[in-house]
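Case 123 in the screening queue. Each case pairs one protein sequence with one candidate compound; here the compound is zinc ion. For every case the pipeline is the same: read the inputs, emit a complex structure as tokens, and attach any notable structural observations.

Predict complex for case 123.
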Amino acid sequence: MVRIARDARANAYAPYSNYSVGACVRTDDGRLYAGCNVENASFGMTICAERTAVVKAVSEGARRFTAIAVAAEGAMPYPCGACRQVLSEFADGGMIVWITDGDAIERTELGALLPYNFIINHQ
Ligand SMILES: [Zn+2]
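Case 123 output:
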């Protein structure tokens, strides 16, 4: 997953920040989906690599993820608050989070990054 996330950086569209990020999510049935950040001149429209990967997977029918890897160079790419909330929507049962910056790799869990996610009980 880390290798796929690193490879996904090659497709990042980051002309404003020059901070290319790649991500790879794993579904509960073992499928892997990669994503990259896609920036926009209207900065608020920028989409992070994590959400790109999640949206790709959900659009293919995935509904639960067990892990995500996020890769960048220059700073550890901890998921932003928006991505933590989006990941939590599909992390029922927990999600391992791998963060890598060059050779450094850190393992954490979504519950540690976002202990009090917003949820609505839906049937
Ligand atoms: Zn984000």
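Case 123 observations:
- The domain at 2-113 is CATH 3.40.140.10 (Cytidine Deaminase; domain 2).
- The beta strands are 22-27, 32-36, 65-72, 96-101, 104-109.
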